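Schema walk-through. Below, the input block comes first and the output block second. Nothing else is stored per chain. Lengths vary across the set, and this one has 291 residues.
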Amino acid sequence: MDPYDPIKSTNVFAEVFAKTARDAARVSFEQNFARLQSTLIDRLNADIEKTIDEDSVNKFEARITREADKLTETIPVLSKILFEAESNQIRLGDLITNISSAISAFSTDDDDTNLTAAEVATLSALKDSISQDLEYLNVHSLTGVILPDSVEDLKAYYSTLNALTPVEGTVDASGSGSPSNDNRTLLDLLGTLGSLADTADLVNDNTKYLVFNLKLDAEAELNKLEAERLEFNLVELQRRSDAIDNLKAETGNLLRTISISFEIQAYFVESLSQSLSDRQPEPGSVLNLFL
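--- output ---
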């Protein structure tokens, strides 16, 4: 039986204690590391949510949507006015022709001091056409834009025209105090309508040009807003992606640092344990002679 060696016995105890402490520390570390990892993942997810739900993004989207909605409402209105102006152009052309023909009808058979039955028939048909042209002329309105009211000036005579009836017989002299019939009043009104129709035709052309350009500008602005939204979304997507990558990198680096710190600690414990072990010489070594 080997004699009792207190130093050797102490080393054995120290070695066992060191190994036990090392094993317990590893189990504790793995448990704590798993909990820490779960906590960091939760925090990472929360931070990722913050990168998505930002006030600046909401404000940008609200502005773009507000401006785009306004343009989306305006463009159909401009299209409608443009269509009506094109319709007016046709009707004004017919109106100008019919007014001219009606004035000429007063002197088809003789001068304009007398209406024959044939002239009355022609004039009545033309008056009905003029009345219809006036009725179907479109009056435009656009919020925030002042449009000329020349068509309204024309349409204001609609009821007056319909109240007049050409009759066979005298056409009173211009400026006569007591008209014999409606003939002179009708002839004078046709002259007024002719002047107003010429003005309305010119104004209508200008309105078409104005509204067409407003529509082009509105469509271009809407496209610009959509391009701005697309660009913002791309930039924001890249920013979020970079932010998320940075958050992931920070979390990963922290976990790696903790893991490396433990491995270094475990290495020193292992080194201590090995330094306390009862080392045996290699087989065949001359040191075995002294054991």
